Structures are given as C-alpha cells and as structure tokens.
Amino acid sequence: MEQLEFFEIPSPCIGVCxxxxxxxxxxxxRSREERFNWQTYSDPQKREVIRLxxxxxxxxxxxxxxxxxxxxxxxx
Length: 76
Hints:
- Helices cover 51% and strands 0% of the residues.
- The protein is an all-alpha fold.
- It has a domain at 32-75.
- It holds the Pfam family DUF1289.
C-alpha cells in the first residue's frame, strides 16, 4: 500500500544550476532529465530522485575529502 502524501514534495533545487563533469547539477545533484521532468514525476518517483541525489552528494563529498587528504599528504 502506498503512503499518502499530504504535502507536495518540493524540488531539491538550491539555485546553483551548473552541471559537473558527470552532468549532474552541482547544487542539487539531479541529472538533466531529472531536472527537466521533475514536475511530471509522481511522488514515488520524486522520492527516488531525492534518494539518488543524496547518494550522489555523499559520493561527491567523500571524493572531495579524499582529494584533500591526498593534497595534504603530498604537501608535507
């Protein structure tokens, strides 16, 4: 049984709107397709996009931390 939604799921857009090297938005981590089709997605689809965005953001943060560690290790 699907959970009822009482409120519209808002767009994860934070107004950055610039693509990274992989084609994901640097602000919300959505793909071009996900950004363009957001308004047509059902609530379950929107929740899935948000879940994917959270995973992409986590990977990006971890990659940034690893790059900083390597930079610091090389600088000593």
